[in-house]
Amino acid sequence: MAQVKNLKNLLKNSVTASHHLYVQNTKLGSDFKFQLNNLFPVISNTGSAGVTIHSGLTNTSQFNLRQIAATSASVNSGNRALTSTLHGDGHILLTLVESVLDLNLCDNSSAGFLKTVDLAANVAATVLPVANGGTGVATLTANGVLIGNGTSAVTAVDMSTKGGILVGDGSGNPQALAVGTNDYVLTADSSTATGVAWKAVTGAGAALTATLDTGNNNIDLGTGWLSGDGSNNKGINIDSAGKVFAGTGTASFNSEFNINGDIEFLGGSGQPSATLSLKAVTSGTGGHLVATAGSSSSGNGGYLFLNGGSSTGGNGIGGNVEISAGLRDGTGARNGSIEFAVYNRTNALVTVNDKSSSLILDDNLDATIKYGNAIFHTPTKGIVYTSRGDVTQLTNHSTSVTSNATAGIITLAAVALSSGAESEFRVVNSAAQADSLILLTVESPNASTSTDDSIIIAQIASKSDGNFDIILKNIGDSNTDANARKIHYMIINNSV
């Protein structure tokens, strides 16, 4: 091995490819050499753009790195848009803070952004078109409403007049409709250019020109009236409970329907008959209909009149008043009766001041006077039988006759009856009962034609249901002549 002594110093930057470093493998006893300049690192740049992060090599094995710093100007109280931060793990973080960017500090000579907009220079015209977000016009009408028109210029409708409203005309040209006359209302009208028009009110204060249709909605009158001329205290008034008043004067709501004045139903020739009735029910007892005249707290009670119609010309007859009771249903029931009731004042059979039926017309067509008398005030008026049972006896005074009436005249056979003689005949009569009271009188012929001293009497011999017998007797001193005498009879029954 060569002796090492007096060696010269070799600087790193002087090492060439001819300088080697001896190396021995002691295990194998082998010798090697390193080319010395291969032990030093080689630094190269990758890419064609940018700035290198090193500033060259020093003494072959040393290279220098450049520092990284943020260079943006400080804005917003010293904050910078670009910052650099060294993190704890050794990496460097570059951050762009967008919120503090100030474009006014940037050079816009070649950039695509604007610091300000100069309409004269940047838009190339003083009026910005609608397509670019403008109006397309240099001025707009004061107090006007803007109307768009596609990409064409914006127009304006003058709305400075009091009460005007904006309406369309169907052609894309809305216009101002001037206010209408006081109390007029805006009404749809297809005959006008705008489809609407101001017209007089067709309600309060004006006559309706068509049917008023509330569309199934209610009308709240409050305290108002339905009247012919719009005035109060005349017509129809309804209170909050739904009670109705019709007529004139101060409204009174004592009942569901209150009328001050007369009621007239149209009827007669060319008109249907009018009926006043309560609604029928499907079960139970029907409702009662009560007609009551006016009461007085300090005077006489009012009269209740039921009048038939009068004939005022053409030789017509007056109208009847018919009071009919209700019809029964079924054979086990009875038809209704008509009862005339009054309050009793003196009749001992009824409690004083109680109301009782005095006259009853029943479904057998019988009239019953329960407690009072039948009083006839006129001397020439009384009981009238319009269906009297008159009959003539045939053959002789023993021949039966048939007379089915409560009262009648039996003309006897035209034969003589001897003085002191008797004769009996039967009267077949469906009105007769075994307990009937039968009144008989004898009508003699004129005195000038009768036999002197002949007197005939008639008496009831017997009675049974359906007939009675009459005995004739001549109590005079001579025979009766052949002139036909007459027997008058009247039956008064104890029961029907």
Please name the defining characteristics of this protein.
496 residues; mainly beta; 4-stranded mixed beta sheet; 29 strands
Radius of gyration: 68 Å
Topology pattern, helix = H, strand = E: EEEEEEEEHEEEEEEEEEEEEEEEEEEEEE
Beta strand count: 29
How would you describe the shape? rod-shaped
Topology:
Elements: E1 20-25, E2 30-35, E3 54-58, E4 62-65, E5 74-75, E6 79-80, E7 82-86, E8 92-96, H1 119-122, E9 144-149, E10 152-158, E11 165-167, E12 175-177, E13 185-188, E14 196-199, E15 225-226, E16 234-238, E17 244-248, E18 257-260, E19 338-343, E20 355-361, E21 367-369, E22 391-392, E23 401-402, E24 407-411, E25 422-428, E26 437-443, E27 456-464, E28 467-474, E29 486-492
Parallel strand pairs: 17-18, 22-24, 23-25
Antiparallel strand pairs: 1-2, 3-4, 5-6, 7-8, 9-10, 11-12, 13-14, 15-16, 16-17, 19-20, 20-21, 24-29, 25-28, 26-29, 27-28
Describe the structure.
- The N and C termini lie far apart (183 Å).
- Strand 11 and strand 12 (175-177) form a beta hairpin.
- The chain is an all-beta fold and 496 residues long.
- It is 1% helix and 28% strand.
- It is built from 1 helix and 29 strands.
- The relative contact order is 0.04.
- The strands form 11 sheets. The protein has a 4-stranded mixed β-sheet, with no helix packed on it. Strands 22-24-29-26 form a 4-stranded mixed β-sheet, with no helix packed on it.
- Among the domains are: 9-76, no CATH class; 166-210, no CATH class; 220-265, no CATH class; 335-382, no CATH class; 391-492, Immunoglobulin-like, CATH 2.60.40.
- The mean pLDDT is 83.
